[in-house]
Each structure stands twice: as structure tokens, then as C-alpha cells.
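Here is one chain, start to finish.
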Amino acid sequence: MTQSALDQLKRLTTIVADSGDLNAIQQFRPLDATTNPSLITAAAQQPENRELIEDAYAQAKQEGYQLDQLVERTIDILTVKLGVEILNIIEGRVSTEVDAALSYNTEETITKAKELLALYQDYGIDQNRILIKIASTWEGIQAAKALEAEGIHCNLTLLFGLHQAKACADAKVTLISPFVGRILDWFKKAENIESYPIEEDPGVLSVKEIYHYYKQHHIKTEVMGASFRSVDQVLGLAGCDLLTVAPNLLEKLGQDMRVVEAQLNNEHAQTDPDQPHEKISKAEFKQQLESDLMAFQLLQGGIDGFIKAREQLALLLRQSFGLDADFID
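Its structure:
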């Protein structure tokens, strides 16, 4: 019996659902799942999640939070509640993102991560099933380093270049999420090109470079390709440690009957590197980030986008519960 591309891919790579849609996660039953502020905001607008929102608001109010702190606490509780619902469906881990507004503040990122974990523990969730998701700024990576040293697992997101991946390796983070589709979008616009053959896709090539570097230098951090625009991009990274894929592409993969072959292979990648891995300093990281216009723009743009999504969710909650900045019932 001929297998779908999705079934073949699952034999080569751990497939992760990139979604906060509980129905989609129920349908595809991935091992792991990832969420972000945009996905949480989308999930909050689904009628079936109304009870979760009301429960989150009631809990925040009961805890004594006031005004904007009430809304922010409600968002954190809602984010964790959705994570718990996802974990009730899947067997593996869920990635839960720290407020992107804290991306350049190491200490506040650590504090927020522990607040989110405490909420999960209140719901009886083992912290080994949680990946704290943090933007791959220097400050975010240092927060992850401190958290990992305490046994708190992290997923470093908005990663667009090898310099970010090297810093994450130094921090001994559990997992990184190098982006594919956003890199492609950037180069298409910058070079005024409609499309690239998959073997020349700049997003796919970026993840391959990071994967090979990690395997060559025996770095244990898992590589999870993220932010896909097409089935071809997903299949172009078959064999990667993990791939987090949106439900619409999972559905297309389930209907695609082409033969899938590994494009990345751990053993093949582990040839002797030209140079040993050397730790990257803060100055080197900043210099390499600033000299890479694509990574610099996409990192900041991604952070701004997640901040905006959280603000949209805050507005939605204020409207939903009849709140404004000056008065609460």
C-alpha cells in the first residue's frame, strides 16, 4: 500500500504541529506541538475556547490582579491553559512562548519563564513536557542558558543564522527553531525573485547549514525547522531532527503521494569539521547579527510581530470583559 508523504516523513523526522487549534492537533496527533502569540491570539477567537478564556480571566481576578496586570496575567494563564489542553491530546512536549516584549531583558525573561512553569505545575504538568520558547536575541539566549542550568528546557525561536545557532549551542539549549519561510520571503523581496528551486531555497539552505554544523561538532541541541511556506520546503528538510508544520501543510502532506527521501542524515553530516567549535562572544554575536541584514531585520520584525499579536489579544480580552484602562467592574 502506497504511503502518503506525511507517513513517509514521520519515519525520517519527528513531526510537530505548529498550531494552537485543538481540533487540528486532535486530527493529526503529532508527538509535540508549538504555539506562539499569533497562534494563541487566533485560538482565543475560536468560540470553542470561550470557556478557557473565561476561566483564565476568573483565575487572574481571583489572584488579585488589577487593570493592565489583570489582562497580562489572563494572557499568561490562557496560554498555559491552551498548552495543558494540547498536552491532554499529544504524548510529547508543548512549546510555550515568553512575552516577546522581554526579548532583550535576560532577568525578566527568566522570571516570566518560571511563572509560566509554575502555572503548568499547578495544573499537574511535568516540566519536562514544557519547552519555554524564547527569541534568539543575545539576552534571550543567556536567559535560556540560566534556565537550562536549572533543568528547564528551552526552545530558541526566531533564529535566522549560524551565529544565533552557535550561541544557542554554547548555552546548551534543548532545541532551536531555525525559520525557513521567513528567510525565503525576505530573499524573494530583496532579490525581486518569484521563486527558487528547492535545492537553492535560502531558507532550506540555512537550516541545512545549521544542522550540518551541529552534527559535525556533536552538539546535542535538537534542530527543528519552522515557518514553512510549502510542502516542498518541508520535504526539502526531510531527516531534520524535528519539523514544526502548520495544519494546512500537514493536510497537504497527507494527500501527497510522492516518494520521500531523506535530505538530511545524521551519519552523513558527521564528517570531520574544518575547524573546532569555538564559543561566540557577545561582541562577535552582535557584530555578526548586525552585519547580516536578513537575520537582523527578521529577528526584530518577528519580535515586533509577536508583541503586536499579544497586544491584539489584550485588546480582545479588554473588549470581551468590558474593561478599559481606568475602570474595572
